[in-house]
Protein 1
Amino acid sequence: MNKIQQLFERKNEKVLSVYFTAGYPQPDDTGRILKALVDNGVDMIEIGMPYSDPVADGPVIEHASAVAIANGMTIKKLFSQLQELKIDCEVPLLLMGYLNPVMQYGFEKFCKDASEAGISGIILPDLPVREFRTDYMDIVKKYALSFVFLITPETSEERIREIDNLSDGFIYAVSSSSITGRSTDQAKKEAYFRRISEMQLKNPVVVGFGVRDKATFDQACRFLNGAISGTAYITQLNEGGKTIEEHTKAFVEMLR
Amino acid sequence: MTTHPDQYGFYGKFGGAYIPEMLYANVEFLQHHYQQIIDSESFRKEFEYLLKDYAGRETPLYYAARLSEKYGAYIYLKREDLCHTGAHKVNNTIGQILLAARLGKKRIIAETGAGQHGVATATVCALKGLECIVYMGETDMKRQALNVARMEMLGAKVVPATSGSKTLKDATNEAIRDWINHPEDTYYLIGSVVGPHPYPDMVAQFQSVISREIRHQLKEKTGNELPDYVIACVGGGSNAAGAFYHFLEDEDVKLVAVEAAGNGIESGESAATTQLGRIGILHGSKSLVMQTADGQVVEPYSISAGLDYPGIGPLHAHLFDTGRGTFMNATDKEALEAAFELARLEGIIPALESAHAVAALKKIKLKKEDKVVVNLSGRGDKDMATYLKYLPKQNG
């Protein structure tokens, strides 16, 4: 069992996952941010790998990515930072990004190096399900990583069941048809969460996109197993006057 | 060489649909229905009617006598510059707007670089009474103020893309984001043979009218429907796809794609994707992409805003990979010279994009019996500000 699977064995409700972009605000903040999130009791962490053309992201994460790239952040550098940190905690770490930089790094080498750096899961929203099954699934399994798929309110039940069968960590439910960092119709959102919940999937389901405060976190957790917040955390880090540690503490307290 | 991609949208190893789940339902629906809709009789009838009476087709295949004399071959110009709105782009926007209307979509979004695709989209949206939003890089909006005004006069809303280099690539990102945010009512009208399957194939089919006309026009003029060369410029590659389409299986016809070399391939300021790119993923398809070693997409450069794109359509990547296409390039300077030469020899001011195709005539060893078709994809009105800067030099 990898750390993601262990986490959901211990805890299947109110799982809090936080996303941040590696290399932002400063190139070497990765370690500080990870430690601050772990110290404040976050259940799971997603480390964003910056990309020049992040079409699924809104302006906050896009800006963070652009700054991180300008700061010299690369997948290679991120792995060497993670290696140096020698992460030894039960909080699962995932890498989230876009397929192109991973393809250029080499998919198998990426999985191998990720696994050695203490990573438990990968999220690449533009990797097609069909290609995952034919070309990538065996590699991901070989390195004991969980590949996490997205579903949206537009995803058909048949496809959700297919994704459930291919998953062994959790399913990432995009809260609305939107990019990261946008708000949406509440009633529609709840109906969607309820529908997913009633499907009795094998995998836990964690809500992402549009989770920005206690109300949106609690709303997701009423129906599903947890939620992921990214844009709101990066926005908080952008506010001046506090250290990363202070911002992180305030942010986690606000959500919980 | 096959004309169509496989069922997953691949031309050899290029193509596919690399999209986040938020776009899956829309793209999958298109994949399953586009061919059936395009092939339906009502669609065909309306499409052909609008191409003829609205866009002004067929466009002439003009024998350029003085240009032929200069280059020592039979040179024909396919006059896409005479289409309504000033370029071939309208062939595709007519096709896609008819498709969007049949899908019941009420809101049309598009990306544009120089503004030609934006104008062609705004035009057909006005024609069909549909809401039109065009994303355009903030830098391009300043460079192409006249086209911004045209789109606005046609009733479109032009939204600046303010991220990155504020050009075509960024405008495309913004259009994709808009589509993700409005999956139900919005149709994304892509302007080139790029994007996730089925866009490259769909746009190529709508543009294929160019080569269909060339074949029968050439037959009328020469008794033989096959030229020795078809030459077209390539950014994303929609006019080239249209000009090559019905010749893909005629292996004796040499298909010459001309990319923008900018200030030169080695200069660091270029847009010649096949020369500078590697296989990668951009805007939903696997193709050749100009990128750093780490897989970050780089900013291309060309004097021509329509060729200034860091990728290339998957069909063209496949033509390059298999050797079916001959890929050449022309620098800014060579394109400018070709534009002035065409203006002086034939009385035709080409778009800067099309001038790159004309520039290739100098680089090909032509025999005197060779029949050469140059696809003159657009007219030069939009580029007059640029041409004016070089006018004194040419006159001197």
Protein 2
Amino acid sequence: MAIQTRSLSREFGTVRAVDRISFALAPGQVLALVGPNGAGKTTLLKLLLGLIAPTEGEATVLGEPCFPPAAATAARIASVLDTCEPPRAARIRDLLDLKAGATSGFDRQRATALMQQRQLDVKTTWHALSKGQQRWVLGAVALASNADLLVMDEPADGLDPSARRQLYGLIREEVNQWDTTVVITSHILTDVERMADEVAIIKHGHVLLHASIEDLREQIREVELSERLSPDELPKDIELLGQKTVGDTQLAWIRRHGGSTEETLPGELRRRTVSLEEVYLALTEHQDKRAEILGETPCR
Amino acid sequence: MSLNWRLLRWQSRDVRLITLVGLPVALIYTLCTSEPFGLNVETAGWVWLFVLIHSVLITWRLGRTRNRTFGFLYTQGYTRNALWGHTMLASAASVLAVWLPSAFVIWLGLRSSYQDMLGNCWFPLMGPTEWSYPFWWLLLYAMLLPALHYAWIRYAQPTWGLLSGALLAVGLVVAIMSIWNSVRVLELPEVARWLILGGLATTSISLLIGGWRLHGRLEVMS
């Protein structure tokens, strides 16, 4: 596995930013972390990068423990973090120099070519770049690193639609060509749906759902019901993700596990496939409701 | 760990301004001080203050673990050992850049000539006897910088925190200054002097090694 975590947690004072997260990611896969602001996505990335220590649990990246960070993996990981940026006075070429000093695999020509694609001069200073241009520079440097693992925190934030599409295209190309593993966060769910292999929806430090995009399409449905659904009425292989009342009807989001059939639920009027965005909203907006339905303690 | 000029240049950016301000200040002080130099806080108070402020500023600039640029550097693919080693090198480079010109002003006799020209009655009598003072100043840096670097590394540990780091820094600086002032190194017999210097060197080396070990577990909170 390229990444493996077990009960990974991180507390800041009384706040548990990441709460017992366990997952595994195979090499050559793109995992998208999505969730509301403050969900714990960036903290999870920092844990994977070995920037902060877990308060509980463990994680390995490229076969080495994340914390303390292993020397063997340092140059094999490239990252773009929302909370880290170069000094204002640094020029783009300084960033290229710095990266070239860290890893012999860094392809400076490719990085420069990627800058030129966006009409960026390597002599430009960081503070003279727009937010989108800064993101492009960081993304280009990470992509030119020829790393085995790319960790990118909202890499397309501030990019125009064309640059965003191009950046995601480049990431996908990297994955297809070199089997690079990618962990990415994004709020643009249509992009996630298009470029990720797996998605994890996070809220309050919990992973509410971790599935492949394919499974998501096949397994999750929105069901319109004549009456409110009780979790007890559901077959064992069906998980109730959330439900809400809309006028006279109930909307429920369910996930079929394994190879179960599309069995009709009690009071079912109709059902349809849902987009990632709808699943996301169902889980994050009605998650506390879901906890109430399922008799769980809402996670905080 | 091998020397990486690119990394050293990057880390030196953070202390560039301090170095550029410190250099002329040290130079002017060395050239213009009319009293013969001393070693203790009473006789060399400004030197102590300068070295202390310079060391604190270097440590602060290179150890801002909550700063966005610090986080950036620590995500660029360098090993912790390389980062620690080059933090030390950047500190040493700033010290040398500030210290060396002042040392040369003394060693080349520029200070004594200038003071003599001003009619200072101590010079040229004091000129030839001051050659060793730059080394004592360097020793002050060698005592204070490892202590302060150790303190910020400790501050950035997952479990210890600000108070432990700040208290440690203040404690170490006060201890170093007190020991230095109470023993009057130059007045001691040679053996005792070397023993004291050996003890201080051992402490500094221990703090450097301790800092290096703790740096592997440093938390980047940007």
Protein 3
Amino acid sequence: MPPLSVWQQVLVNKSNRPVLASDEHNVYIKDGIGLYQGRLKIKKYQNGRLYLTNRRIIWLDQNDQQRPIAVELSAIERIELVEGFLRSSPKIKAFLKQNEETSIKGEAMDVSGSTPKGSFDQLNVLDAALRLRSSTVTWVCVICLYNNLISTDCDLNAALPTCISCGIPPSRAQIERVLAEADELSRELTLNGPPPNLEACPKCTFVNHPSMRYCELCGTALRLVSSSLMKRLQSLDNPSSLSIISENPMGLILEDKEEYTNNIPYVKFSFRKGGELASYQHLLEEIQSIQWLALEAKGAINGEGTKIVELREPSPQKELVGGIRGLEKLDQLKRKQNEMVLSLSLDDFEQLMYKAQDILNLASTFKTVIKPQRHSFNIEGKTMPPLLFNKSSSLYHQELLRHVSEFLLNFELTSVTSMITLQDLFASYNRFLILSQGFGTELIPPQDLTKSLDLVDKLKMPIRLKTYLSGLVVVARRSHDLQSLHRVLLQYLIDEENSFTYEKYKSELLADNDGYMRDKYRVFNGLTVSQIADHYGWSPAVCAEELELCLEEQLLVVDEHISGTFYYANVFDPTILARLANEESQKKDAQNDVLAQQKLISDKLKTTYDADQNLIRVSDYSFGLSTSVPSLSPPLSGSLPDSLNQLNGLRFT
Amino acid sequence: MFAFPKIHSFPPFYTQQQNSTVRENQLNEWGQLILAYCQHHRILTILPSGTAMATQEEAEIPPLFENKLIERSAAPEFRRSILNHLIHKLDRAQYVDPKQQDAGILIFWRTADEWARMLYEQIEKTGQTNSVLTVYELTQLDELAAGAEFRNMDYNMLARIVEVLVRQGKAQVLRSDDGLGRIEGVKML
């Protein structure tokens, strides 16, 4: 059989897409495809779309000037990927089945019987189909008069078929009669040759036009159409032209005479715009599945057989070629591998996008389980209705601002000193939206946020924006005053320093073996930006700006050292110096506290010791009190060592 | 041993403060510290780096511009501005030679007028007026003509003091004729 006949006609719908059979579906579509028969281009079939379905490869002309053509996948033996080189585009080579083609043809010859030499393939196929059709006969339901179909070889001993329309089974006699009629009719046809009136409908005897396939009146298939049509065609054309048509049903014109390497017929699809790899894989899958089905149909596979998928990496054949060609080859190899990786990864991505909705649903089911991390927006405690507002509305920004403001007052600006930078606000507000409304929430873009925050003064919101010299913008409560904020800051530093001195003197009185305490409490080391920021829950940038302002206001002084920048209360200012607690009084306080503590410990030790040894109860005698109480009175420096010495008896150091 | 005031172990003390008012206060504090320090160690001249150049005592002197304990020291720039403050604002110090600042800075922990009055009273008390006294006799001799306060006094400092007396018309000086014009002898009137 001439390989060109592998190309078949394709029906196209109005929007220029191929009409698919009922169980056919599209697998892959690619444009910029040229067709080759063997080694040669098929003329005018060089720029088109390729539709890969699960049964055919369909080619459609890009400009719809050529008739679309198709190759059945079942006619393809195997495929091969041909890499592009320089100006030659990558191609897929599809080798055609030779033996089966001829066997099919032989069958067709047998069936049609009367068809002359140079058989008309298409009509043969049609004929076979008609024969297949005729193997079913109709029986009319006696109840509803519906025309039911039944195949001629149906087993009458088994249960009789029921009417599709009303469900009533026919009588056995009726079916037998119908089958006998059909049998007779077919025997008549095969034995006696065509009846005299070829155009007459076998059922209603209406004489149809020879080109009709179905009876115009009753719709019955006209069985002899093919042969009659063939006769007419025979009379019209001479045999030579017929043979050309059969060899080349679509009238394809090659550049030259047909030629194949190794004499194995094949067609090629040239991918002018790439995409050959994906096509190749899809095609391979489809062909394999068709072959698998064929095997199954032959009964070559038992029920539990599975297909062994051969994982074939398309390449690393180490071929050491020197020179430029070798380099080019290496480069090509690398590019192919890259393309492979990319296309595979993108496949996965498409999968992910495909599953996106499912994943979102899944994620929201976990919402109750996930612990909110850093910012525990205590949503249970404070409820905030979500902002449901049309984005296109002119009031949108105002509403958004109100919502943000509510959010801030509830969660972020909880204390007077709270501040938050715009960036942090943006992040935490969106985080809040996700947390309170689930993952599908639409987030607020920064443009909208800034736009609505611009309205803060106009709407007299309880929050306000503050811009520092460096351009840093923060949001704070309106109530919080800059001056008082700095006073608070100063007071914090003073408190820190006071407590430090207190601890220092306290540590001096306590045991210190390794000198750690001495080193630690040598001198107050001030506070760094991060310490202050942590204390107030500010971001470091805000804190640095505030401290800068405090320096300007002469409330603080700075110590810039290689180990860092430390801030202190401005003791150069006598009024501030006065607010630092007096060292002497601090010292005294520390001593008193330490003494009281030690006495408590010693008392406890005494009572437990006495209780253990069954000695006289300490509380009966007030010696502990009478000796140590005076030591707490003013001349502390003298009495201190004494009171501590008393503890030596208890080996307390 | 000189007891440094508490501020000497206050870390921001060693950083030049940005705010001008605060800085003024800070520099004043530094000035007071330097005067007290120099008085305690009887230092009359220091180098711009803060090292004592001439002292009337031979003893170990702790460094002025640094505190090893808290690991802080004033930057050279800051030292310069402290000394400038002392010279120009507080008027308690002078360059030995303004054109040659590295030559040292005289620290007037006692003002030149006070020094001059002390010197004159001492000379008057010991009845040495109208007699010529050499610089050596005033500062180096075992039995000092001018009293213990002037022992080992730097020549530059003595020159300033004497100049004050000259301006007041209480003294006359004899200068060397080697072109430098150094003071050789002083006669109180």
